[in-house]
Amino acid sequence: MGKDRMQNGYGSGSEPGSPNGHHPFREHKQASRQSSTELFDLASKVMLIGDSGVGKTCLLVRFKDGAFLSGSFISTVGIDFRNKVVDVDGTKVKLQIWDTAGQERFRSVTHAYYRDAHALLLLYDVTNKASFDNIRAWLGEINEYAQEDVVIMLLGNKSDSTADRVIRTEDGEKLAKEYSVAFMETSAKTGMNVDLAFMAVARDLKMKKTRKPTEPKFNVADYVNQEKKTGGCCS
Amino acid sequence: MAERKKEADHLPTSESDQDDFIEPDPPVVTNQAVADTFVNIDYEDLVNPDYDSHPSGYIHEIVRQGSHDDDDEPRVAVSSVSDVSTGEESSEDHTEISTKEISQALDEVSKLQHPEVSLEDEEEIDEVDTQEWRQRKKHVFILSQAGKPVYTRFGNEDKLVTVMGVMSALVSFVQDSKDLVRFMVAGDHKFVFLVREHLILVCVSHGAESSQQILLHLSYVYNQILSVLTFSTLHRIFKQRRNYDLRRLLTGAEKFLDNLLNMMDTEPGMLLGAVRCLPLDSQVRDNIAQTIVQNAKVKDLVFALILANNQLVTLVRMKKYFLHPMDLHLIINLVNASESFKAAESWTPICLPKFDSSGFLQAHISYLDDRCETCLLLLSVDRESFFILSECRNKIKERLVKYNALKAISDSLMKTSYSIQQCGISDLRHFLYKSRHMAQFTSPELEAPYLSETEQERLCGLYFYLHHRIHTSARPLKILYTVGPHETLLGWVTQSFELYAVFGPLVTKVAAIQAINKLLRWVKREEDRLFIPNHVTF
Fold this sequence. Notes:
Chain A is built from 8 helices and 8 strands. In chain A, the strands form 2 sheets. Chain A has a 6-stranded mixed beta sheet, with helices on both faces. In chain A, strands 1-2 form a two-stranded antiparallel sheet. The N and C termini of chain A lie far apart (51 Å). Chain A is an alpha/beta fold. Chain A has one domain (42-231): P-loop containing nucleotide triphosphate hydrolases (Rossmann fold, 3-Layer(aba) Sandwich), CATH 3.40.50. Chain B is α+β, with helices and mostly antiparallel strands. Chain B folds into 3 domains: 134-264, 2-Layer Sandwich (Beta-Lactamase); 275-415, Beta-Lactamase; 420-530, Beta-Lactamase (2-Layer Sandwich). The relative contact order of chain B is 0.13. Chains A and B meet through α1 and β4 of A and α8, β10 and α14 of B.
């Protein structure tokens, strides 16, 4: 049974940041509808969290399939699970992405999965003040349930809707600074910064696994600041 | 002639005209399938506040079982924890509403029903003030005991605070006299109340359903809420704060309630307390079930089932545990109402109130084919078993593809069930046949003249009428033959089956009786294909 688990992701021994982290392992992923058979060196668990309707599923679909889910609102029930393998400087990193339902009643279910998440993408909707105000509560939950060294990235989604925007970029930046987490604005509709968010996570994992003690620590927030595009004019 | 219905009610004791009614032997129950027998939904039970909450603690039982395996200590099968009932048991006869206060309150409500008496002219027009809203056939409202709006089928709850206030006043007024309001009739509208410990459910309908049938629908709605929250959560929340706004916890679940109500308007399954099975060669079905058994040998997996287009393909269950048709309908509704399962493997909590209303089962839900028709559900009590079940799912899918079983399922779906012509009975237009001990039913495709939506609705109404006449608690019937202006109806209920048949208007009684005897023989012949006699166990 332990072997079964390994095929689909982390065994308990290969958790990110564990002192005797396993060497990169090449594995043959089970063929499934979600993704074709691909090889990978590292696997990383990423969770998308945030209020209902902020665009978690849309962000994921944009990243995974390069498409935008327009039209009706498909609310996620419980937790969805998808894989994508990305290439970070020649290293194949499999991102296991858990897309969660934002509704309050699913919180107890999703909490259980914070624990072994390597990265949490915390989303709010720049056109919805309540979703931004709830970010503090989300961060509180993360502190309570997630691992110490979890990578947290705050994402202000729907940045393309300039007309309806109520949360300024500065507000997001300020909040991110206060909690010292990485921050950027994204748009699942235009694709802005979507890949960057996931790639930063993959890169962080790779650095954690391969970093020599003498090298400086990889900082997601700095990396993101370097790479991110700012929205604004592109509407 | 046309305006008056000619009816001939046959009581079981009367011998006239009944010679042709040969009650077929109850199907040979091999392997003592009695275990699969479901107690029919008894309308009288519905008014009992205990009816819907049986926190029988199965989930804990299974979890505990894991800790000391195969310990065969005797267990109490159903230890229903009785609710702290707020509403008293009402006497059997219907509560007469004649008091002045009530009629005043009723006036309030009926004012809202009639557009010409507009209450607030100066207010901007809300949806609830529109003609369209008032003329909806079947309204469903849910409010907390404190009178706070929880859900409305049409319009916005916020705009209905007054109406819901009146409803809660009605309920508590009757409760004051140690009684329970069950329904009221105003013109052609029925107001049906289902009062549960923390919630009041009200249906206002001018459709064909009887008030008892509406009560059944309301109890489905109540169970749907439990399915999302569990009874324990509901209880805990309202115990802490009586005026809690339950909508907070139900966000995103409205679609399940909407979908359930829409399904109940068109699908006879919930009325019958039975599910429809996908017609499938019994060998293919066995193969599918065995594939699941062999590839999902996982501790704590309670139920595994495959659904295709709201029909049951197969169900595998843990020994000793049964899936009640009401719970199964909630599962079907969950799959039917959600688009998100089509995108990826999902892991979601679901409470099955008949199984255990105190806790959640965890459901691994995924479609097995690219067209998203065949859905596999694995229900476990273990919250950590996602990856294990995901692995099982991949193996099951692989085997089913290999055995061409997925193709058999999609072929069966393509064929759109079966035509009434296949039964080879002239004059028979449509029928519903329910096997009582299997809690499953079958019916042919809807064909002319029931192609338009209004005609289908009318047909549904006929079934509601027939079902109501047969099951009415005041005078239950075994056989009912009734001639209407457009069709002749025949209903027959025995120990083992319920049959509701719709004939053309000119059929004679003798011909109709011959026809259903023929139909019963046909059903018997096709039984293996149309029904699942025994659910395989792990």
